[in-house]
Amino acid sequence: MNKNSPYSIWVANRDNPINDTSGILSIDKTGNLVIHNGNDSIPFWSTNVSVAPPANTCSAQLLDSGNLILLHKSVVAWQGFDHPTDTMFPLMKIGVDRRTGLNRFLMAWKSPDDPGAGECLYKMDLNGSPQFFLSKGSVRLWRTGPWDGDKWSGIPSKPTYFVFNITYVDNDDEVFVILSNNASILWRFVVNESGTLEMFDWLEGDCRWVGFWSTPKDGCDSYGTYGTSAMFGNCNPPSDGKFECTCLPGFEPKIAHDWSLWDASGGCVSKRGGDTCRNGEGFVLMIHSNIPYATVTRVNISWSLKECEEVCLKDCSCNGYTSADIRGGGSGCVTWHSQLMYTRVFSDGGQEKYIRVDAVELESRFLKKTLFFGPWNRVKYSGIPLQTSNFVFRTTYVDNDDEVFIIGSNESVLSSFVMNESGTVEVHNWLEGDHRWVGYWSAPKDRYDPFGPYGTCGLFGNCNPPSDGKFECTCLPGFEPKFASDWSLWDASGGCVRKHGGDTCQNGEGFMPLTHSNIPYATMTHVNISLSLKECE
Questions:
Q1: I want to staple 495 with a disulfide (CB 3.0 to 4.6 A). Which of 23, 199, 459, 471 is the partner?
Q2: For the whole model, what pTM was predicted?
Q3: Per-residue confidence (pLDDT) for residue 408, from 0 to 100
Q4: Which residues of 458-492 are buried (b: 16+ CB within 10 A; e: fewer)?
Q5: Tell me, what's the pLDDT at 269?
Q6: pLDDT at 268
Q7: CA distances from 448 to 23, 443, 456, 464, 466 (A)
Q8: Would you state the pLDDT for residue 97?
Q9: Residues 104-118: b if buried by 16+ CB within 10 A, e if exposed
Q10: Among 313, 342, 375, which residue's Cα sits nearest to residue 146?
Q11: pLDDT (0 to 100) of residue 508
């Protein structure tokens, strides 16, 4: 390719150069295209087509697309596009021919001035869902993620400045990607010797190539950094100097000490031994996410997401699921049945995925999303510290054998009680003089609000509004953090357990008062309105 600035997009004898100007390109008597020098009959390079007609029926042609082809009786017997070097350009296929085993991939040069085969590859992997990996030797640097119907899932959103359309084909015969040409723009896609993928377009007015996209971009893109390839680990782009590695929902660091040293290569293991087989388990949603790498992946494009969930839940080997195609609100089903690797969070874009967790984790995560008003205490809901004076209506609470409900009433002020799409409850009054609604109460106000977000401090945890920058979570009297290392990282989601094993059954036990407190949530509660507090004790 020469646009006033020479650039080689394809090299035939890249690993067997001729060190002078004696090279000759010709068709030999076997019908193969060969390169040799004038003094040596042994070719430096050959197309190696095994069955060839007589040479006088063969021809070679360099097409306008840049594809060098060998014709046998006007039929393409070999083409350079099947054997790319470091560059992909319009109408070139990259991928695998399942019938012949041919794998078309990009391989970087050894150096900017040596086109010999380098260490860096951009190659399709058919384990699990087909996807491309960028590797340097045996070390994987980046992956595209599986195709999501619109783009590669490892790219959070399709850049608006891409100057081509991407076509992905996956059938019984082959799986490949091809980028369609834009007649007005010349571009190239290159894997370089440093392990970076780059895209360039040609600025005709400036007579130069300009890069407009590259990857990897950050630590979460770069595999092997801080253990982003670890089992069941998850990478969040770092902020405020924090470690970018976390574990997927329901998992915890396998070697907590190493994580404190910012080494997550040991990966994560299931919390509590994680019994997730027909034991009340479920799924936790992750948003703005990529699709994990799993060596055992199953795809069904005809199922809905609900059917996908049901199938995954019944199969104890299924660690999670997502939509196969994100277009039109999502369709199809992808399930993962092996360890999950190479997961990350994007600041925007990405895809939704569902991770299998045990019943304890599921309840903890559900409660975190629950606004908890507390039980009725005959004056107000116990989760509200005081009945605020600006409440302009009277609340009536009814609980009998037939029904349980509340009703609000007033005579002089029109009020509305609304739950909005962000998960906030608001009370509004109508100002007749101004002809408008005015909000005067809402919940939750922040993460320390008496209402929630519920479950911040886990089971048997207690939340105190923070002061002096201290962590807001403590344990109830007689309890201690279950995972002390997590609490040191201000993560109390694992909750608390009884100190000393805590034998509290007819063994000298008793009670400690907690003042200025709300009423805890418990799934099993007994109520008797005729007992005194002493009798209750």
A1: 459
A2: 0.67
A3: 72
A4: bbbbbbeeeeeeeebbbbbeebbbbbeebbebebb
A5: 92
A6: 92
A7: 77, 11, 9, 7, 8
A8: 96
A9: bbbbbbbeeeebbbb
A10: 342
A11: 85
DSSP letters along 382-408, please? TTSSS--TT--SEEEEEESSS-EEEEE
> Which residue is associated with the tokens 């199922």?
303
Largest CA distance in the chain: 112
SS3 123: strand
Q: What is the 3-state secondary structure (H, E, C) of 182-240?
A: ECCECEEEEECCCCCEEEEEEECCCCEEEEEEEECCCCCCCCCHHHCCCCCEEECCCCC
The Cα angle at residue 218 between residues 217 and 223, in degrees rounded to 5: 100
Element (H, E) at 35: strand 33-37
Q: Are 228 and 245 spatial neighbours (Cβ–Cβ below 8 Å)? A: yes
Q: Looking at this protein, which amino acid is placed at residue 17?
A: P
- Residue 211 contacts residue 198 (beta carbons within 8 Å): yes
Under 8 Å between Cβ of 118 and 107: yes
DSSP 523: S
pLDDT of residue 156: 83
Of 88, 142, 85, 146, nearest to 116 by C-alpha is 85
74 to 69, 77, 78: CA distances (angstroms): 11, 9, 12
442, β-bridge pairs: 426
User: How far does the chain reach from its first CA to its final CA, in angstroms?
Assistant: 88
52 half-sphere exposure, CB direction, 13 A CA radius:
22
Look at the block and give the residue holding tokens 């012949």.
100
Cα-based distances in Å from 112 to 47, 108, 115: 26, 9, 7
CA 258 to each of CA 53, 239, 485, 531: distance values in angstroms, whole numbers, following the listed order: 65, 20, 11, 54
Q: Which of helix, strand or coil describes residue 329?
A: helix
Q: Left (φ > 0), alpha (ψ -120 to 50) or beta: where does 310 sit?
A: alpha
| Count of CB atoms situated within 10 Å of the CB of 244 | 21
Q: What type of residue sits at position 499?
A: K
Cα radius of gyration rounded to whole Å, the chain: 32
The residue ranges of every structural domain in the chain are 23-215, 225-358
Q: Which of 498, 247, 473, 455 is nearest to 363 (CA)?
A: 455
**Which 3 state secondary structure label does DSSP give 416?**
strand
